[in-house]
User: What shape does this take?
Amino acid sequence: MSYSPTQFKGTGVALVTPFHADKTIDFNALENIVNHCIQHGVNYLVVLGTTGESPVLSADEKNSIFEAVARFTNGRVPLVAGIGGNNTALVINEMREFKHRTAYSAFLSVTPYYNKPTQAGLIEHYAAIAGMSPLPIILYNVPGRTGVTMLPKTTLHLAHTYKNIIAVKEASGSMQACYELVNGKPNNFLVLSGDDDLVMPQLACGMDGVISVAAQCFTADFCKMVQAALDQDIATARGLHYKLIAGVNLLFKEGNPVGVKAALHQLGLCENQLRLPLVPASTELYTAIAAFQAKIKA
Assistant: This one.
């Protein structure tokens, strides 16, 4: 699928990977979740990011999920494939061998984790990927998970240097970083939120959209909030922000995708199953999420 600069504006959803009780992949549930997201206004889908529990999936399972989501989506919305890691050569090889490039529009590639590269190392990592990737690249800065922060000046250097680096998912939680990115980016480079609790103010200051967890379960309201903010209808966006913020915070209370899988189970979209080392939400959290969902439907 071809890429255009506007393709990833608005609301993207980082899909979960649903499991049966025996921990095998539940493809029927995955299809239901894809259809739920599209029918309630999501603009594009991200497959096998953090929310998809990619670290606990085999290469064959990942390939099956990439293929299945492409088939379920059937061209209705753009797709992004999550391929990243802390071994640059392996990331390059996985991108080269990606079998579904005609169905996907970009790769989401997280900063290398655990080995904690310097800013110079991050630049070299992404330069190597950009030099061979068959699809455009969305950078992913999420220091809370990786142990390294990609500074705005590093992101902007990459954005200005490599034409096929088209966006960043910025999940540092820093509004100052967002200001610097929006103010310094090239015209066609997108700055996307990775912090569901900050989306509304980030969009108000000029960011282009979000790759969201919460939009998978609070879908219609979340998509409306994002679009209202992009349309500069701040009153509507602010009202939806305050309607949803308590639920958004609950989703991350015991980690991701623990909360969103509980919420999706309550919606009848998948079983409440995760692979170790993650475990399902505590009874207290599950009950709180259920109460919140009942409240916003009332």
